[in-house]
UniProtKB/TrEMBL annotation:
InterPro entries referenced in this protein's UniProt entry, alphabetically: Trm112, Trm112-like
Record's protein name: (rape) hypothetical protein
Originating organism: Brassica napus
Organism superkingdom: Eukaryota
Family of the protein in this entry: Belongs to the TRM112 family.
Length: 163
């Protein structure tokens, strides 16, 4: 899993208000070379949560990024040295084995062969209300993602969230 992916993930357990950033517990980190594209990096910079990226990179043993986020105007004129460090952190570092940890609940999501398993247990899923339009039935409570998939052809998923 690349750090660019990690920077977009958050814990989605019901009741969790602050599920970002996920902490990284790295067991195996590998580096995979990727073509350098400065324009892509400049474009992605605005979408990156800088503190989360720096913390994630350091948890994987890479400490070359500055603690404070560079100004957006600096990125436009940034020298290649800085952009290469950003490129390495975002795209070339891969968490191959380990876990992502919810900062609020401590729930660990395993990462195996570079793939994070973010599936929730049944009791962690937000309930979804579906209505069977063909039969005009009362709303049906769907308690697991498996049930939801089975009913997709006959339901509209309203994804109601009760505060």
């Amino acid at each position: 899993m690349r750090l660019i992916t990690h920077n977009m993930l958050s814990c989605n357990i019901k009741g969790v208000k602050n599920g970002f950033p996920l902490k990284i517990e790295a067991e195996k980190v590998i580096e995979k070379e990727v073509d350098f594209n400065p324009d892509f990096l400049r474009h992605m910079f605005a979408k990156i949560e800088w503190k989360a990226l720096v913390e994630a990179a350091r948890s994987m043993g890479y400490a070359e990024l500055p603690e404070d986020s560079p100004d957006a105007t600096v990125i436009e004129s940034a020298d290649e040295t800085f952009l290469r460090k950003l490129h390495h952190a975002l795209l070339e570092l891969h968490l191959e084995e380990g876990a992502l940890v919810c900062p609020e609940t401590g729930r660990k999501f395993p990462v195996n062969k570079g793939i994070p398993n973010m599936l929730l247990h049944e009791d962690e899923v937000k309930q979804t209300v579906c209505i069977d339009l063909r039969k005009g039935n009362e709303p049906t409570r769907i308690r697991s993602p498996k049930d939801r998939v089975l009913m997709q052809d006959v339901c509209i998923d309203l994804s109601l969230q009760v505060p």
